[in-house]
Write a structure and sequence with these properties.
alpha+beta, single chain, 9 helices, binds zinc ion, Alpha-Beta Plaits, six-stranded mixed sheet
Length: 376
């Protein structure tokens, strides 16, 4: 029976599975982790949202009077990018205190640390509250794996507290902004480019919309730890050839939202703000996630992390979204911490690395957090 794992070795093993998304192909990686946990005494189940797109849930059932604590991470990574790497992205090259590879920070190191904590927990586990590990496929392209699990009846079960292992260099964050990506479409009437007066130019309408969006005012106070909401026009496309009046243009808008002005409210605001003949379609719609920093469990996590970080954590959040958007909604909003060993600045970068010492520290921290919950 597997008991303790070397988390550095495990991180290297996980990096060797190419789970670049698209296309993802997380199945082998999921099966590898599942086997370790099954051998370690966990109940493991696999869920495919598409061919070879596998998420897994591993449980250690415990007392029924207290819900389990859940830990979650994603198995996919982003593509390597256009720039060439000076390190092999899949071999888990170690140089001093750094391990390199695609997913080293985001977030196979976090998954490895969770698996390490899980296997160690099993050894000391008896008559305690349960613990659940959720490892998802397809997070990087909009939390497809997590959404799939949330949509399956009775699969996720209960959750009393949630830890999501995204890269924070082990700083426990108490929230993130929501994301609302919109596709804004304008339409017109095509005509020959030499006779524009016979057409209706969709690009001109798109430009008008972009111009208005630049001046959009959310009209909301900054959140205490998430700051201001933001809006960015990320893409624009329209027209088929120079000598025609374009009859269609599409603008892509990325909005990061706050709990006090949730996605639906922003959507309505934008819709009434833009011209009536503009079509708006949400492409990504992920709720913000926040937990009251004074929550008892959050304070218990801060107690634990104070000893690792050398100072007491303060309430902080981030702008990017995580699977927590989907999971917290599915779980009826448990207190949630985002914390993982990866370097936040390394996510999605060329020559991505994670500090080896942070992976070991994360395993210790996850173990302590789980133990504290299960014994509570
Ligand atoms: Zn991630």
């Amino acid at each position: 029976m597997a008991t303790e794992v070397n988390v550095l070795e495990l991180t290297r093993k996980l990096l060797a599975f190419n789970t670049i998304n698209p296309p993802g192909q997380e199945r082998q990686c999921a099966r590898y982790i599942g086997k370790l946990l099954e051998d370690g005494g966990f109940k493991v189940a696999y869920y495919d949202f598409a061919e070879s797109r596998t998420s897994l849930i591993a449980r250690l059932d415990g007392r029924t009077d207290r819900p389990p604590i859940c830990f979650s991470g994603h198995l996919d990574t982003v593509p390597l990018g256009a720039e060439s790497w000076s390190r092999d992205p899949f071999s888990g090259e170690v140089d001093g205190n750094r391990i390199y590879g695609r997913g080293a920070s985001d977030m196979k190191s976090g998954v490895a640390a969770m698996v390490g904590a899980a296997l160690r927990l099993r050894k000391t586990f008896q008559e305690k509250a349960g613990v659940t590990f959720i490892f998802t496929a397809g997070e990087e392209t909009g939390s497809q794996g997590a959404s799939h699990l949330a949509g399956l009846s009775g699969v996720l079960g209960l959750c009393g507290a949630l830890v999501v292992g995204e890269p924070t260099a082990n700083y426990p964050l108490v929230g993130h902004k929501g994301s609302l990506w919109l596709e804004i479409e304008t339409t017109g009437t095509t005509a020959h480019g030499s006779m524009p007066e016979q057409g209706d130019n969709a690009i001109y309408k798109a430009v008008e919309a972009v111009d208005k969006l630049q001046n959009f005012d959310f009209n909301i106070a900054a959140h205490p730890f998430l700051g201001e909401p933001t809006l960015n026009v990320g893409t624009i496309a329209g027209g088929l050839n120079i000598n025609s009046v374009p009859d269609r243009a599409v603008v892509g808008v990325d909005i990061r939202t706050l709990p006090d002005l949730p996605n639906e409210a922003v959507f309505e605001k934008i819709r009434s703000y833009l011209a009536e003949d503009v079509k708006i379609k949400p492409i990504v719609d992920m709720a913000s996630v926040t937990t009251d920093p004074e929550n008892e469990w959050v304070q218990a996590v801060f107690d634990i992390m104070e000893s690792f970080l050398g100072k007491r954590p303060e309430p902080r959040g981030v702008a990017y979204f995580t699977d927590a958007s989907v999971l917290t909604t599915a779980f009826d909003l448990p207190p949630t911490i985002i914390m993982g060993p990866g370097e936040p600045s390394m996510a999605h970068k060329t020559d991505e690395f994670c500090r080896v010492s942070k992976i070991e520290e994360a395993m210790e921290a996850y173990f302590d957090i789980a133990k504290k919950w299960c014994e509570g």
